[in-house]
Amino acid sequence: MSAQDLIRETACTVVEKLRSGDVTPLELLDVLEKRIGEVDGQVNALPTLCFDRARTNAKALMQKPAGARGLLAGLPVPIKDLTDVAGVLNTQGSPIFKDNIPVRSDILVENLEGNGAVVYAKSNTPEFGAGANTFNEVFGATLNPWDTTKSAAGSSGGAAVALATGMAWLAHGSDMGGSLRSPASFCGIVGMRPSIGRVAHTPAAGIDRNLGQQGPMARNVEDVALLLDAMSGEYAANPLSLPSPVTSFLSAARSGHKPKRIAYSPNLGITPVGPEVVAITRKAAERFAEAGVIVEEAHPDLREAHECFHVLRALDFAMSKAKLLREKRDLLKPEVIWNIEEGLKLTVDQITRAEAQRVAMTARTVEFFKTYDLLLTPTTIVPPFPIENRYVAECAGKQFENYIEWLGIVYALTLVCCPVLSLPCGFTASGLPVGVQIVAAPRGDAKVLAGAKVLEDILGVRGTTPIDPRVKA
Q: Most CB within 10 Å of its CB: which of 16, 161, 274, 373?
């Protein structure tokens, strides 16, 4: 099989080839290194490479019997540049950490490597993952491969672009306010924010911080499910982590289980959405009817989402980064400074009110899912925007008050603790990808994956990636 053929294979297929001995982890690393050399200079998705470390780990893995190499069996996986990998530069997209080399890996990385992943690169991210456009002062901007004048979104923009261009079969991402869902939509790949605790990671700043979750990204639903299986597991060092399910997520994705009734909402009742995005996502949702599924327009009551997320996100920034503001203010970008300062100004009454809003919205959402198996809604409110814009400032005549408000359609679902998957569902008239969110009740990860696979098969968009970057001036 040629390198180009391997690049286009699914992760599930490549893992089977690893298990059968048709290909080795070292051969896959050679293929990726060549592909990165050919295309990454055009998109800047994987600025930090660690192939020497990867080959050392691959050789050690190859000494084990084929059946003892874990779920991924030696498949290479890049890690987002917010997460520690022992001995590999971890900048968090910030000049403050431009020389930071951790001595120990995050629990997430240890778990993945224990399941047969071979880490070969770090994917680009905005500073501390803040802002849904992947650029930073350390490595520069990551460009959208469908049109290199456009944003790849963020903060898992590097991961999404690596997948879309064939520089990865699977990729790690993370998501607070849509940080893996938005890049998935902009780049035409699949990204999933799992339920709280589904993927263990090393706690920092607070044991019970749960707005942000780690999750899998890939080019199709089955591959996302495979990576979620490899990422899942219960660890004492992360007390909120959940045990792996009895039935694998890959089995769930392949089950053929169809929802009986779904809801589609063009805007969750809280945000403007561009008309082309609404038209594409509505058409995709309605195609569920071809599988005998009842499709209705509805959404849970999420009216407090903007106020609630603004407060809880600011609190999270204050908890985790107030020390950096005191000591390194001149090295922080304006949006990060604003978020930390907003957090430091909060009163107990504001925090209490926001937590109560989150409880109420979650209760209403759980009740909503007693009627509907799944909820579908656009992943982003606009198609990919010009790379020079730091964020979306306006949509459909609505001017946003800050740099995160345009993300309401994703962060509202963060607040109500739901697993959410972004699935490619079509293209704009100018050929840019659009994604639809598929949502289930809390802990309904398997239901999300099964439904997403049904719709993926109906839509027939699987296989549109990887692409060579479409470089435009």
A: 161
